[in-house]
Amino acid sequence: MKRILEVGGFLLFVWGAAGVAHELTGWFRFWGVVRRLSFLDGHELYASIVLAVLGGVMMVASDRFR
Question: Which end of the chain is more exposed for a tag (fewer CB within 10 A), N or C?
Answer without folding.
Answer: C
